Amino acid sequence: MIKHRIIIALIAAVLLIGLTGAASATSVDIAAINSQERNSAQYFCDGSNDQIEIQAAINAVSSNGGGDVLLRDGTFSILGDITLPNGVNLIGRGAGTTTLKFISEGSVQVNGNNSVRNLQLTGPTGFFITGSHVTFNTVTVRDYSLKRGAFYIYANDQALSDFAFTTCRASDGSSSGFINAGQGSSSSISGVTYTDCSVINAGRMSQFDPWVSGFDLAELTTISNVLVQNCKANGCWESGFYLADGVTANNVIIRDSSSVDNGQKKTRDIPASGAGFFGGSSTMQFINCVSQGNQNGFTLKTGTTIIGCKDTGSKNGFVTTENSEILMADCWSDKAQQWALQALSSHDVTATNFKVTNPSSNPAPAILAGNTEYPSYNMNIQIAGSPVSTAVPTTVSTPVPTAIPTTVSTPIPTAIPTTVSTPIPTAIPTTVSTPIPTAIPTTVSTPIPTAIPTTVSTPIPTAIPTTVSTPIPTAIPTTVSTPIPTAIPTTVSTPIPTAIPTTVATIGPVTNGVEAAAYANAAYTQGNTRLAQMQQAYRAWVVPSRPDLVKIATNVRSSGLKGDGVTDDTAALQSLLTNLPSGSTIYFPPGHYRIDGPISINKPFTLFGESGTVFDCEKATQYVFTLNAKGTSASPMTGMTITGIVFEGPGIETDPAMIDAYYLQNFHVSYVKFHNIGYAAIRVNTCTDVTIEKSIFDNVFQSGLGYGVSITDRSDRIYIHDNFFVTKGRHSVTTGTSQTDLPVADYVQSVTVENNYFENTTEGAIDAHKPTTGPYVIKGNVMNNCVKGVELGSGTAQISDNVIVNCKGGVVLTNVYADPNNLPAKVDQIVDNTMINILYEAIDVDRTNILIQGNVAKGTGNGGTGIYLEPYVPNVCNINGNVIESYARGFQASAPSSTISLVNNFLKSSGSYQTF
Prior knowledge:
- Residues 554-790 form the Rhamnogalacturonase A/B/Epimerase-like pectate lyase domain.
- By secondary structure, the chain is mostly beta strands.
- It is built from 5 helices and 78 strands.
- A hairpin with a 5-residue loop joins strand 77 (906-908) and strand 78.
- Helix 1 runs parallel beside helix 2.
């Protein structure tokens, strides 16, 4: 029976709706019996059947076209279901402040186009989500016992999409924390993002079924485009993160997440259950994840990619049974109770740079790659670092049928780890062999070291070694400044990774032809793997959803912009930018915003969009966005951010640049795609602390010009990482000046280009003109089918761990403005690069002191020279531990000199490797 006071509340709500107009969104307040501020609320609950008042308020808001139902502080007593219709949001005062306490079984049913924020559910309950376009932010479900789970998306023979969970938590329940399920042939779920979410003790004390897990990503439904990032699952009954076998899944990414003490159900070993991470899909990727103390760390299925992950103290670290085509890179098993890596009845498993520390002595060895009962073949396992124990062999340790040979490539140590994240340490160990962190990292960082040793720390065995350290240069900068404006959090919501962490090709120095062959073959394998990883990451790129910014932003649709692809929104946008205060966040909802330009921005803003947000600049004839054109070095503009937008340009061979920035500090560009542009996508002029990341530069070309990113004048601390330069380009990244007679003190300073992918450039992918001082740090990149990978005419160069494939030239340092008879003191460094199928010289150097070390280069068999010094005499020239193949000559100096040192270099022009 409806309580009498609801009638009064409904009359008040109807009067409010009538006064505000039927087309306006509505918000109503509901007070609990113990709310501190009851009198001003429109609905009052008495602590009994409070779902009645809450549902009445929801229905009133829904009848007015949608809006917000605001739950005040306190505890609401619930004895049944609550239904959120389309367009109604449920908002509390905080997960520890507003509580819906379910006395009897019931759920909050979410029908679509809803937002739920800042509240907590307890008891036999959970969220039952049956519609698309739903966001949850700071929501907790605690002590739950509803069979469906705490956050349950259900596709009943329909396609559902667009879900974002941020800072949500499920704890101490008897079913899974997050679950995606469905039924029917048309059932599918796509576009699900979990950020900073956690599940604690799901099923630990009681279970509705034996498969209660933390994150159950798919059951009986097709799943696609799922990102789990910065999440954790601890103490769950089955697995922490779980994707069921047999479901159709596409593009499922788990990254920067941890799984601890899961697999409380210790009943099965093979196939492995109770995993920290259980991958059931060929398109699943684990990136920079951490497992600790689980029944099994990572259970891998056919086609899985796992990069930069670590397990500590689980029964088995990495497990696969009856699977194939598994790619592991930069993974680490520490203190495994049984097997560090167990692969039974599997084939074509590649593990590069796999580190094993503190392995169990029983059984030994620590790696089981098949046995007589469960044979495996085509296992390519490369052990990293110094020998971890006698239990870890240099070859696959288990019996394999002689008809199916098992080969293991030579291991590769991590001399300079290169992965996605960017914590920057102030120092690294004085040896490079096997750095071991003192704690389990929450991310796999990209350290940029302060000093790398010049001595070899590990004796080199005469057989093919498990680990071999390499002398490394000594002048890589201490830090790369990458500040992120306060409007954008330092962890950006990223449904799809924009780049795959690279592995390192350092194995030398080698001392004989056998070692040289092993060194080269391993480098070729890694190089081709990294190329494939980068191409896969490019195909997986998407713009992330940013509900955290939407709620604080100015929506341009309410400020006169149409976004219909027809109306020119230039004037409306310029007016909005002029009138908004400095530091405003501006949201461009999905749509095609015709921006003919020009737009002038003289205050720092955050401009952001989401998937489907396009700036249509096809009719532009001038630079489209000019930032701080009247600025000076004494008064830079600080904190400009652009993210989540596609720029459609007027086509190649056209003049407009999309973004032209002057005197900026802390300028951040991320998740932006530039497509069909002529002169330049981004120009950075006299700017400092600039980060350009996770973006695409697609078909940016103009004859004689054409730059993805152009860096000019006294710009400093420029960090370009995890981007994709594709289709066609001239110089993807270049430095130079637009001025004449620029003082040397105003040349471009520190630039770091790291972990990017470049293809199809008509000149050097990474380029430097005369006005460049540097240091120019180029590391961990992949260049494919470019005329030259790197071509620098100026500046101190530090070029390491790049893969250059199918290019005419590899690394070219011209230093064209240096006096060959009075060389500057700088020493350029070309270290640990892999070059495959290079038509001309792999390394061509002029007018500089140089260290060339640990590189692998393979030509096309057309003669020529692998490493070539132009006609000058260097003061210092050390050429050490390089392996050259399919060239007529390994090294040639046009002006021989006693200052040139050649140590342990090998050439294979035909037959076997010989020293040169």
